[in-house]
Specification:
- The chain is built from 13 helices and 15 strands.
- By secondary structure, it is of the alpha/beta class.
- The protein folds into two domains: 173 residues, Rossmann fold (3-Layer(aba) Sandwich); 181 residues, Glutathione S-transferase Yfyf (Class Pi), Chain A, domain 2 (Up-down Bundle), CATH 1.20.1050.90.
- α4 packs across α5.
- The longest helix is centred in the middle third of the chain and has 38 residues.
């Protein structure tokens, strides 16, 4: 196995943290001060648009990953006129406490049971989450960079080693690109490139091999989920390597041989930052030939596959964050999606504008909250 053994990593921690019991927000987005006591099952969050439903899910995701959704900067999540924002959570069964303070002008502060963590990324694996929102349509309909970001985001949540290699790789590519631009202005000794190319080759192969192995697993799960959604079409996921770098040695060789063309281009032309995840429906690339309905169904199937993959690796279902998924689905697919997600028995946070969208059966099975102007009230 190229991917690390996650079950062994988690066993070493000697604790499992898989659902959120208590959530408290202060000066976060449009929340001045709010607290909720969540259900271990389904938490239905209702309210009109722009009232704070998505921000509530974002707070849960922040406790899980140390990062905001939608690529936001930390300062953007702090209430206007405030210097700090605070998100705190307590996990069920273990009572583990996680606290994150976002601060203007300085790094966020992350604490676990009152003890400061060196990095926000050290939260990964404490509260695994899988999220889906309308903005995720770009995973299928967007540029290759959107699909690579999907892979990096999900794999970084699963494997701390992947996140470490991703950080090393990005830094090495940035430094090599800076040297390439300098070389366009005048000669640079090629020895200056070699140390960065060594990092690119080793970390790049670790990223590429992990992506390829995970996509093999994800493809099988996504095809199954796609068929269970009742669309009668075949979904396929394929990882496409855009160069001949299939080990560390070959990536190093390609980087060395390509310096001349890379200098002319001003950027690095070899490595996983140029690879593609192909998403095909009935043999045609969904990005170009899929309808919006086909693209959306493909994204949902990919997220359900991610959920299944995470559940196998962690031994328990992760927390599922579903943001306004009902608005673009017909009634039959809403029901089927709920059957597939709720049948796994994990904790769910689900937003909608009105409870009628969810249906009486789901409302009866849920703890219902209403959000209005950054205030949460349990119904």
């Amino acid at each position: 196995m190229i991917l690390p053994n996650v079950k062994e990593e988690k066993a070493a921690e000697n604790v499992r943290r898989l659902w959120l019991e208590h959530l408290e927000l202060r000066d976060f987005r449009n929340y001045s001060s709010s607290t909720i006591e969540a259900s271990i099952g389904v938490n239905l969050v209702c309210g009109a648009n722009a009232q704070g439903k998505t921000s509530l899910l974002e707070a849960v995701s922040l406790l899980s990953t140390g990062r905001l959704l939608r690529g936001s900067k930390d300062v953007q999540a702090i209430c206007h006129g405030c210097e700090n924002a605070q998100v705190e959570g307590q996990l069920g069964e273990t009572g583990t406490a996680i606290a994150i303070a976002l601060r203007r002008g300085i790094r966020k502060k992350v604490e676990l049971n009152g003890m400061a963590l060196p990095r926000a990324a050290d939260l990964i694996g404490r509260l695994p989450t899988v999220s889906f929102s309308a903005s995720d349509l770009c995973i299928v309909a967007g540029d290759p960079s959107d699909r690579r970001q999907f892979l990096d985001w999900e794999l970084a949540q699963l494997f701390p080693a992947y996140l470490k290699n991703l950080t090393i790789y990005k830094r090495a590519v940035e430094h090599r690109n800076a040297l390439l631009r300098q070389a366009r202005e005048g000669y640079l000794d090629h020895d200056l490139f070699e140390s960065w190319e060594t990092h690119i080759a080793s970390s790049g192969w670790a990223l590429r091999s992990a992506r390829m192995e995970w996509i093999e697993v994800l493809d099988a799960d996504a095809r199954l989920a796609h068929s269970e959604l009742g669309c009668g079409e075949e979904l396929r996921l394929t990882y496409e390597v855009r160069d001949e770098g299939l080990d560390v040695t070959s990536i190093s060789r390609l980087l060395s041989e390509g310096r001349g063309s890379d200098i002319a281009r001003g950027s690095t032309g070899t490595g996983p930052h140029r690879d593609e995840l192909l998403v095909q429906v009935n043999g045609q690339e969904a990005r170009y030939f899929g309808s919006q309905g086909q693209q959306r169904t493909a994204v949902i199937a990919m997220k359900l596959a991610t959920l299944a993959s995470n559940e196998r690796l962690f031994g328990c279902p992760p927390v599922l964050l579903l943001d306004d998924v009902f608005s673009d689905l017909d009634q039959s697919r809403r029901l089927r999606l709920m059957e597939l997600t709720l049948g796994r028995g994990g904790q769910v946070f689900l937003t909608c504008t009105e409870t009628e969208q969810a249906g009486a059966d789901l409302v009866a099975r849920s703890k219902v909250f209403r959000v209005e102007s950054g205030k949460v009230v349990e119904q």
